[in-house]
Amino acid sequence: MTGARRSAGGVAADDSIHIRNALVWPAWDAEPIRNGAILISGGRIEKVGRFTARAAVELDAGGALAMPGFIHAHVHLCQTLFRGLAEDRPLPRWLRERIWPLEAAHDDESLAVSARLACAEMIRGGTTGFASMETVRGTGATLAAVAEVKLPGLVGHCLMDETGGYRTLSVPLDDALAECDVLMEHARAHPWLDLAVAPRFALSCSRGNLIEAARYARSRGLRLHTHASEQPDEVEWVRRRIGMDNVEYLHVCGISGPDVILAHCVQCGPAEQALLAQTGSHVAHCPSSNFKLGAGIAPIPEMLAAGVRVALGADAAPCNNRLDMFAEMRLAGLMQSARRGPGVLAARAIVRMATEGGAAALGWGEVAGRIEEGRRADVILVELEDPSVLPDDDPASAVVYAAHPGAVAVTIAAGRILYENGEFTTLDIERLRADAAVQRQRLLRRAGLA
Ligand SMILES: [Zn+2]
User: What is the tens place of the pLDDT at every residue in 99-151?
Assistant: First the structure.
């Protein structure tokens, strides 16, 4: 890289940061500013444009692209330790043979290490906020780990009360919601952390569970996060058992609206797309996961044309196997070109999904997703001099199709430098490597898989 370097100062959220000599791209629909600058103060954007200033931290971008950090709208932090452990299985076997036994075997230590590992990968790749779905127990350990790392996030506590023959993860609704009350207080004690209520999907939750989850979330001002219409078998099962399409069923149960994130929505026809648009629900599109688990290609251009709000996510390490927003953006574009022809989903529209769309999904529509005065300072520096990106200087095509996590020089979330030129400021990466190996082995033994 040519020189994004911090010349002085610390990394605390209340330190002022002056980024200079950057190609500032404030938002997906804005024009980039050459030799631009950004002034950050008190965790927020104070000024954007061409100006000089002094700050506690001077950061020479060396011509790098300064853009809003990515918002990862669907991830499972708790599954990061399972990377590579659930290969080549269709979704039902993927869940029953690997993911559920491994989730059931987690303890607080393995959950914390799994969360730290996910945060490290996301921060390294320019992610400055995430919406996760965790497991049915131990979400407090995940919240504590994320709070230490200081990555803004919406951590979802998973609800399941119908698991077929797999009872270990089934938790009575009253117990799950009592746990949510405790978790909500825990999350809200930290800046930019919040709890979501996350019924897993229609197949593992009773109708009462879905209805009460929605009622509970609204009574507490919490967001809802679930999986919807990922696989053909799933929507067929709902049609047979309930007599409705899946998104329609979730809507009837109260799981639709501007406070709801629905991951996947691959199997959604025009009527359900219209319902998603009318209710203002957010779709978290997960291209790699959909390909790897054979779900298909979500009709994203149709959804956008219908007015659906779309965000982007990588889903989980065992079904991707990366938590890499560059990979998701690139595949989101490629899969639609293959499906409907080049140009049907423009690079800028994809960047919108990965930034502003994600911010809206997490409830941060007014505070994140764009580099604008007064917004939270979530800024990444992407090295356009990287050999894989040269000589593309159009930020949209460079970021969507050419760049990769290795081109991220600096990640700033909520005004705090979390990653800079290979170094994490809130994570001990060597210790994390050792912890991940130990915790994964213990987890496999507890799950009876080692
Ligand atoms: Zn998922």
Answer: 999 999 999 999 999 999 999 999 999 999 999 999 999 999 999 999 999 99
Distance 343 CA to ligand 1 centre (A): 28
In the chain, domain spans: 5-67+378-424
Rounded to the nearest whole angstrom, what is the distance from the C-alpha of residue 76 to the centroid of ligand 1? 6
Which one, of 275, 208, 225, 289, lies nearest residue 246 by Cα? 275
What spacing in Å lies between the alpha carbon of 230 and ligand 1's midpoint? 9
Distance in Å, CA 290 to ligand 1 centroid: 10
235: tokens are: 């929507």
CATH number for the segment(s) 5-67+378-424: 2.30.40.10
CA of 258 to the centre of ligand 1 (A): 19
> What digits encode the pLDDT tens for the residues 356-402?
999 999 999 999 999 999 999 999 999 999 888 998 879 999 999 99
DSSP alpha helix (H) spans, 324-422: 325-340, 347-352, 358-361, 395-397
pTM for the whole structure: 0.96
Task: Answer yes or no: are the C-beta atoms of 136 and 176 closer than 8 Å.
Answer: yes
